[in-house]
Amino acid sequence: MNLHSIRFLASAVIALGFVTAAHSQNSLPVNAAASVNGVVISNDAVEQGIQAALSQGQKDSPELRKAVLGKMIEISLLSQQADKDGLANSDRANSQLALIRQNYLADLELSTYMSKNPVSDADVEAEYNREIASLGSQGMIVEYKVSDIAVATEADAQAALARIKKGESFDKVAKSVSLAPNKVQGGAVGWVQAGQTLPQITSVLTTLSKGQVSPAPIQMPQGWYLIKLEDKKSTKPPTFEQSKAVIRNGLIQKKQFEFLSQLRQGANIVVR
Predict the structure, then answer these.
(1) Which domain holds residue 45?
(2) In the β-sheet with 223-235, what is the strand arrangement from edge to edge?
């Protein structure tokens, strides 16, 4: 595994808390894969490390499992040495560890919420039927070719919109100020259906004419957006089998968005 993989694995195992209390160096607890100077690396942590490696496209094999355990041993050795060198309580270490913990807990909370509030097969079929019924008598799907600009504040969005109104091209402004990865493509998103976007975007997108930019910034959980309707077309709807994966993902995103909205409503958020 390369250095990036080591760092990725290190973040994963630190977030999981793979190191347990020291014990007798000549014996291993039941769920231990190894110990380093009496500090245990659990089998569960090794399995999580393997899953992290698999998510990066590596193939499961005895060699991979040996390599993952080997890297965990190296990480344990380095972290123990960092403790001895007094690095564990540095400001840099504390801020990074806090960030890793926060990201892990955020992912854990979302996955726990979704396990308690899953999208069922019946939900997916009902949404497909609802979408088909909404097409009307012609039974055609309207697709929208969209570009967007994502910025941190409403003021930034208003400034970008002012530049566009003065005649600068949308893609030029996107390349200049957007915070989204698609800025390098001038903000191009591609073809989407109204049901595949969040309600705030959908409510604006369906009112735009070809070539038109949203008349005002759109507030989203991640920031403020401007969208442009590049083109629009009608197509025959796919079958349920062709659609169910996309519909399920859309319903999952909707549930997560609603959950985050509830948390925001009950929170005291102050932004400088």
Answers:
(1) 3-92
(2) 188-193, 141-151, 223-235, 218-220
